[in-house]
Amino acid sequence: MITSTLEKYFNTVDSLENLYVERLKEAVAIPSVSGDAAYRENVFKMSQWLIELFQKLGISYEVVNVGTQVLDNKTLKLPPVLLGTYGNDPNKKTILVYGHYDVQPALIEDGWNSPPFELVETDKNQLIGRGSSDDKGPIIGWLNAIEAHQKAGIEFPVNLKICFEGMEESGSEGLDEVICKEASRYFKDVDAVCISDNYWLGVKKPCLTYGLRGIAYYKVIVSGPGRDLHSGVFGGTVHEPMTDLILLLSKLVTPSGEILIPGINDDVAPLTENENKTYESIEFDLNEYHDAIESKTTIYDDKINTLQHRWRYPSLSIHGIEGAFSASGAKTVLPAKVLGKFSIRLVPDMDPERVNALVKKYLTEEFSKLKSKNSFNVECLHGAKAWVASPDHWNYIAAAKAVEMVFNVKPDYTREGGSIPVTLTFQDALNKNVLLLPMGRGDDGAHSTNEKLDRSNYISGIKLFGAYLHEIAATKI
Fold first, then answer.
1. Whose CB has fewer CB within 10 Å in the chain, the N or C terminal residue?
2. Is residue 230 marked as binding?
């Protein structure tokens, strides 16, 4: 039942809808790409944009500097972690919300239908732009929820702690240290954590997410000649790094997704009968999944196998090669040094250190079989364990009630295939339950071309965040 207070809040959100879309448009226009040195100043610009909104809404804040990094052979300052506080009533529960203000790279020539850093609304009311769903729409949604309470003259139901970072898309450098350091200070009164950096399973039904896969990300370097060579002059007389690298990458995974590294599946938690039954009731349409990937190239043709291989089994993906010729036209060059990138999505109970040892041992052995005179090295760039929380916790119960209130349907309880390493850090450092409460849909295309957030999801998401906080306030711990 929607209370008069929440009805007033919902009506206020509706009245401010166009303002909130314009606000998202401003944020998307800032190309805060964390993984490219040329865009670093824009990540700082985005942090300042948020600070100004904090000030407008009366959110007290701290700007935490987290040091420097070397990127593209340049030493750069890392974007700050923004810690915000709204309310400090000891009689209210305190909820910590986390999100990130950096985005993935995007160029119109990648296949975007419109400039990626201009928010464009389609005739289907989809808000297209880089970061619209991942993660600017959700983090701004939390701030909009504060504003809507103010405009409606409604007392905010909880104390809100905010942790926004600018390096999530590039490994969250420096964030773990901040969380661990602040666990006994800034975060000491937190009762539970909520993260909105994921998506519905499909396009129709909301969900609550209680698990994520971890990740181990690798680069493989093969180098030989001191410089690039002419294939007509040197082809057939030297060991070519590109040939070696292609052969190594081909040894990692089969087209059907089977990981070929010996021992990699030994620590995967076995599938129990009870877990297997939970997949039957989850609403999941394989045709919608095909629509999201814009093809019918799924490995499995049934719901249960697709879901299980999406989030409860490991996967290995090959991402790209640096150093090779990739422009249009023909260039008959032998690259002197090439770097391949791949990642493994980890699941309970896989340990990143053990996986790392297995990967290095296997690739070293496979390289030796090539009998190449080139040099070889494999390095793990970052790793994180999988995360699983208890969906029976009062944090999830409150969120489920809020979903039913806003969408008139009970949510599905799902895990996800992506990785948000900070979930495990918050859970372990604060010893608190962590909830993933998505705003966007399963077809939003985060990290892809034409990333979008449906207008209806954006506005309903703001309502959901407010309803969740009111349910939290009414919940007995």
1. N
2. yes
Residue 291 marked as a ligand binder:
no
d(CA 27, CA 48): 11
Whole-angstrom Cα distance, residue 183 to residue 162? 13
Do 244 and 374 contact (CB within 8 A), yes or no? yes
* Domains defined along the chain, listed by start: 4-212+386-474 (3.40.630.10), 214-269+312-384 (3.30.70.360)
Is 447 marked within a binding site?
A: yes
Cis amide prior to 135 (ω within 30 degrees): yes
Q: What is the biggest distance separating any 2 CA atoms in the chain, rounded to whole angstroms? A: 80
Asked whether 153 and 5 are in contact (CB, 8 A), the reply is no
pLDDT over 80 (residue 240): yes
279-303 per-position pLDDT tens digit: 988 999 999 889 888 999 999 999 9
Mean of per-residue pLDDT scores for the chain: 96
Residue 79 has pLDDT above 70, yes or no: yes
Q: Please, what is the Cα angle at 249 between 245 and 255, to 5 degrees?
A: 150
Query: Which residues does the annotation mark as catalytic?
Result: 102, 168
User: 391: which strand partners?
Assistant: none
* Pairing between β-strand 126-128 and β-strand 452-454 as defined by DSSP bridges: antiparallel
- In angstroms, rounded to a whole number, what is the distance separating the alpha carbons of residues 233 and 114? 44
pLDDT at 419: 85
Give the integer Cα–Cα distance in Å for 439 and 206: 8
* Mean pLDDT in residue range 14-33: 98
Cα gap 266→253, rounded to integer Å: 16
pLDDT at 1 over 80: no
Alpha-carbon span 337 to 224, nearest angstrom: 6
The burial of 96, by beta-carbon neighbours within 10 Å (0-12 exposed, 13-18 middle, 19 or more buried), is given as: buried
Quick check: 475 pLDDT over 70? Answer: yes
Can you tell me the distance from the alpha carbon of 344 to that of 319, in angstroms, rounded to the nearest whole number?
A: 11
Residue 285 annotated as part of some ligand binding site: no
